[in-house]
Amino acid sequence: YWLVYFLLLCLIAAGIVYYYNTRHDLQKMLVVGCKKNEFIPYYQPIMSLDDKLQGVEVLVRWKLSDGSLLLPAYFIEVAEQMEVINEITITLVKKVQADFRRYSSNYNRKVFCAFNLTAQQIENKSFINLLILTLKKEENFVPSFEITERQHFNNLALAKANIRRLQEQGYQVKLDDAGTGYGGFSYFMDFNLDGVKIDKMFIDVIGVDDVKVEVLNSIIMMAKRLGIDIVAEGVETQQQVDFLRKHNIDYIQGYYYSKPVPFKDLNFDN
Ligand code: C2E
Ligand code: CA
Ligand code: CA
Ligand code: CA
Question: Which parts of the sequence belong to the EAL domain (predicted)?
Fold first, then answer.
């Protein structure tokens, strides 16, 4: 038995070493990728209930030197714990504004453009300063922000003040991944957010799990009582769209309408 225990311990140790090595490699690759300017924006349409494109969400993609695109699932968690996430966000803001300028003949009305921010970024005063400085006011380009509920806030007062500063610039701030985090809805009361994005997890249960739909119903009810916008993400089926229409939520986003695409492939006609 000693031998079995010993071998098991060796295996676990090897696993831990392997994990930290790959993590360390990824950290180094992220820094290099940042220097080489390899992070690019993709855009997913956000529709109103009358099937009109009202906004887009900016979703980062890592364009490797061989031309392949890496999804956030492979790197964003590690990036979010490093300084590079700030560089990535600022790079995206610049590239997004360049896209809106370059293709401005593709559209002739205001569309909002939502960037993802981490809890740490919202608590970082100098980052928010840089963000506000980088964003240029332009016609038909309306920046907004999504802050995820998945991460802890360490300094609620500072987060609140920075959210306020973004709102004073005329930028909306919404709670992302609503229902999945630690905070529940306590944030709403305190942060005075403009809206809530219901996570795909709660959209998936429509027509599938009646008990979990009750949770979805309560999120919708709460947001309505607060009078803030409701966005549903990860909407894939007609049944889900019908349900969300019935509940008169504000915006729908998901593969039902479109996957994330490069700016030139966005369709502003409807
Ligand atoms: P998220 O903010 O919850 O974004 C929604 C994710 O769901 C996106 O995945 C989107 O492509 C995907 N999605 C949208 N509609 C559907 C659908 O109908 N079906 C399915 N199966 N998926 C759908 P993506 O682009 O892979 O991004 C994953 C996560 O990475 C995002 O989740 C967000 O947390 C993070 N992320 C993306 N861009 C950024 C960024 O610039 N900064 C930070 N900090 N995080 C980012
Ligand atoms: Ca988001
Ligand atoms: Ca989500
Ligand atoms: Ca509304």
Answer: 23-270
59 lines ligand 1 (CB under 6 A): yes
Helix axes 2-35, 84-102, angle to 10 degrees: 40
C-alpha 86 – ligand 4 centre gap (Å) = 31
Q: What is the pLDDT of residues 10-51, one digit of tens each?
A: 999 888 888 877 888 999 999 999 999 999 999 999 999 999
Report CA(7)–ligand 3 centroid distance (Å): 40
Q: Largest Cα–Cα distance of the chain, in whole Å?
A: 74
Interface ipTM: 0.97
Locate the ligand 1 atom nearest the alpha carbon of residue 72 and give its number. 30
pLDDT tens for each residue of 203-247: 999 999 988 899 899 999 999 999 999 999 999 999 999 999 999
Task: Answer yes or no: is the C-beta of 143 below 6 A from any ligand 1 atom.
Answer: no
pTM over 0.90: yes
Please tell me if the CB atom of residue 47 comes closer than 6 angstroms to any atom of ligand 1: no
Long-range CB pairs of 33-41 (<8 Å, 24+ gap) are 33/62, 33/64, 34/84, 34/87, 34/88, 34/91, 36/65, 37/91, 38/62, 38/63, 38/64, 38/65, 39/63, 39/88, 39/91, 39/92, 40/92, 40/95, 41/92, 41/95, 41/96, 41/99, 41/263
